[in-house]
Amino acid sequence: MEISRGIQDWCNVVGFYKVNIKTQCFGAAISYGGTLCVLNTATDAGRVEVFRSLEDSLGSKFSSEPIAPNPNPQIIVFSGPSGVGKDAVIKRLREVRKDLHFVVTATSRAKRPGEIDGKDYFFISKDEFLSMIEKNEFLEYALVYGDYKGVPKKQIRDYMAKGYDIVLRVDIQGASTLRRILKDSAIFVFLVAESEEALVKRLIGRKTESKEALLMRVASAKEELKNLNEFDYVVVNKEGDLERSVEIVGSIIDAEKAKVHQRRAAI
Ligand SMILES: Nc1ncnc2c1ncn2[C@@H]1O[C@H](COP(=O)(O)OP(=O)(O)OP(=O)(O)O)[C@@H](O)[C@H]1O
User: Fold this and answer.
1) Is the pLDDT of residue 203 over 50?
2) CA distance 205 to 198
3) How far apart are CA 185 and CA 231, in angstroms?
4) What is the pLDDT of residue 3?
5) What pLDDT is stored for residue 4 in this prediction?
6) How confident is the model at residue 43, as a pLDDT?
7) Are residues 179 and 83 in the same domain?
8) Same domain, 182 and 231
9) Best of 82, 206, 239 for a ligand 1 pocket test (most atoms within 8 Å of beta carbon)
10) Whether residues 174 and 157 fall in one domain
11) pLDDT at residue 232 above 60?
12) Are 79 and 48 members of one domain?
């Protein structure tokens, strides 16, 4: 017979015990005004009775309010060298975490065939873009080869208000700018390949770049590594192990949301 006692100094409760013999009898010993009652907690009715008598003994109801406050929605800024697998990781992450919103960037460039407004980008005119800049409606924006690209604040605010975590995919310069703006209020994740060799093979495998473009991307990747210390986390996206990278990023988000002192982004 194994007897485990607990909560002994709780008002009238004199002890819990678990009897582990063939009959599998579980119970709690409770004293009502000096009379010891043994309640059978093997049945639902017995458990309800024990629960109620504990409340009676304490003279108050047990609260069903959450003990820990709801975690703050988090902003995850995702960056890394071209071809490392940012899109692939984010795409899979969105499939496995339903409470994530991937921010769709606004751009003043014309829509290309096959692109969908609101999915690939929000396509807006240059005038509209300039008016939004004037009204301070972008978290960050840049002029890239004559076209504006920017992160609309409203989209982030709206989704954070609904409790969503926010994912932003930016290049290294974008990450530096966002770090200056958001400081420690967002989580900065840098994705790398396990080696330069693996990165180059991945880029070749994607078949989207010319030889010249490949050389440029590899050179930039080396430069970009120098910015690593501006980030909070580095995740190695190993060849053939996308799932593991997605798991690690998910764990980072979970750990951040379990922190006692959490990041709180105000956009
Ligand atoms: N862990 C992995 N193992 C093997 N292939 C991968 C892995 N992760 C991504 N890939 C593949 O590598 C290629 C590049 O990935 P992806 O387009 O997601 O990179 P990216 O970082 O978003 O690139 P860019 O910055 O140029 O847009 C894709 O063909 C993708 O399917």
Assistant:
1) yes
2) 10
3) 12
4) 40
5) 40
6) 84
7) yes
8) yes
9) 206
10) no
11) yes
12) no
Residue 7 domain-assigned? Answer: no
Tell me if residue 157 is catalytic: no
Let me know if residue 3 belongs to a domain: no
The count of domains in the chain is 3
pLDDT of residue 83: 86
202 and 111: one domain? no
The tokens for 39 are 């309640």
Structural domain range at position 37: 13-58
Among protein residues, the one whose CA lies closest to atom 26 of ligand 1: 82
Does some domain include residue 4? no
Residues 45 and 19 in one domain: yes
- Percent of the chain whose predicted confidence (pLDDT) is above 70: 85
Numbers of helices and strands, H then E, in the chain: 8, 12
Q: What string of DSSP letters covers 24-79?
A: --EEEEEEETTEEEEEETTSHHHHHHHHHHHHHHHTSPPP-S-SSPPPPP-EEEEE
Share of the chain above pLDDT 90, in %: 67
| pTM of the model as a whole | 0.82
pLDDT at res. 250? 97
Predicted ipTM > 0.90: yes
Do residues 83 and 180 both lie within one domain?
Answer: yes
Binding site membership of 206 for ligand 1 (Cβ less than 6 Å): yes
